[in-house]
Amino acid sequence: MSENLFTEQKTPYPDGKGRYGDFGGRFVPETLFVALEELEQVFRSAREDKEFQKTFQSYARDYIGRPTPLYFAQRLTEYLGGAQIYFKREDLAHTGAHKINNALGQCLLTKRMGKTRVIAETGAGQHGVATASAAALLGLECCIYMGTEDMERQRLNVFRMRLLGAQVVGVDAGSKTLKDAINEALRDWSLNVKNTHYVLGTVHGPHPFPWICREFQKIIGIEARQQILEHAGKLPNLLVACVGGGSNSIGLFYEFLNDKDIEMVGVEAGGKAIAPGMHAARFAGGSFGMLHGAQSYVLQDEFGQIGTTHSISAGLDYASVGPEHAWLYSSGRVKYTYAMDDEALNAFQLCARLEGIIPALESSHAIAYVLKEAPRRPQDHIILVNLSGRGDKDVEHASKFIKLDT
Ligand SMILES: Cc1ncc(COP(=O)(O)O)c(C=O)c1O
Known about the structure:
The chain has 16 helices and 14 strands. The protein is α/β, with parallel strands linked by helices.
């Protein structure tokens, strides 16, 4: 792996003000401003520090299990009869999703800042489990905020977090999902900022969070690039990933952004319908706005009130999207589409039956798009899809919607 994992930049963003073109920035109360400045300084020094890079990379290898494999999905490819489909197996990372890359990185930064406590928000529970695991590993106190609706959908992960020694605080406000959990985490952070770091779980929030999270997640694309060259002897034609806040997708895409011929598609949650309150497809139903300290695309009404959202998958059920994606969308470099709940459920089952892999419902949105796109493409095309997590956490929830014959 490259020595300068964090210092090699593919774009000029974020700029000095934490912006990605018209998006991003740092819109927070005074109390948090100092903490964000401190975090930025600590990350700037860590990314230049060979010892820090070595520590991150040795945990990545020995604790997370990196590099995660790149897998040729032969049966799915044959079934669809078009492009060759490869999975980047982030579902095989320790704790079952890509979230661990960022959680571990930020917990290391917490130690570097001399802080003893971490807090985090979680939707699907994967970021909560990842943060609780990294906190246990590094001896940090840990508290996780989670909407009560998500706690119900992801009961297994709530138990896992508690088993790992974290306190899980249910948030009963608003839509009882991720947005509300983030509000509570930000409140806790303003009160306890002296000893506490907020491990934000995706490429959203005030600068420097979108940047830091991207830097820890871009390892996915760095590995995938090397692996596809080894497996197939050429670069992929199309990259596909699901987009909640946007961390697994930016993690995959970033390394390829300057390869002009490589297409990239981010798949949002189309939910039940593209109508207010029934989906979480920010690029299909959102507009320029602000949420959680950053300007981006937001689902909102004409008065700027944040809209309610729906997705079968808790990890995609969020009213905004990371500012770097808003920039990639407006520049046309990445295309964004959506998959509906029932399409994701279909992909979930098909992947299980054909490949013996139960994907996370989030990742199933990306696979749902591939099911439509692969047959339209020639057999020498390569589609590389990020399998952001495994579906164990979703089995109980999905069983309410899937009727099996046997
Ligand atoms: C497995 C999995 N994939 C994807 C996501 C979506 O997040 P992001 O868009 O930041 O990758 C989540 C969020 O919880 C998740 O658990």
